[in-house]
């Protein structure tokens, strides 16, 4: 029996999109890690760009930037794992077998990742704001706060995980009675 979803255009597009996003996130992660030594090697340029009346020392500013880059790397890595799980779910739908316990686990992980990114984003914004004060003449801005859309996404993912868990259990019960 052939699977009608095997050639579904939306699933193919979703898979391609998740692979592209993963590639971009991978490049972003590499860029963030490479930026750390570059920042420290560019101390003199950063010192020139800093405001003369900055309350932060050059060392504190470099440390703050380094922490922001490291936490950014954590956030990008979490997003990479999020999209890897999404790709696996898309693949299982394309194979015609989405209601498996593994997809329920993946959806739960995606929900926790969504919340984790929100938790990490708060100190990133605070530290970035602190570091930006050293460059007042450069007009840096930092936008911070909890993203209500991300919180709603996390709740939706946790609910879908329960739906998938229940669907997998119902299918196992049905297969056991046949």
From TrEMBL:
Residue stretches in coiled coil: none
Tagged with keyword Glycosyltransferase: no
Statement: the UniProt record of this protein carries the keyword rRNA-binding: no
A matching Pfam family: DUF2975
Keywords on record: Membrane, Transmembrane, Transmembrane helix
Family matches, as InterPro entries: DUF2975
Transmembrane portions of the chain: 16-40, 60-83, 109-132, 144-164
Name of the protein in its database record: DUF2975 domain-containing protein
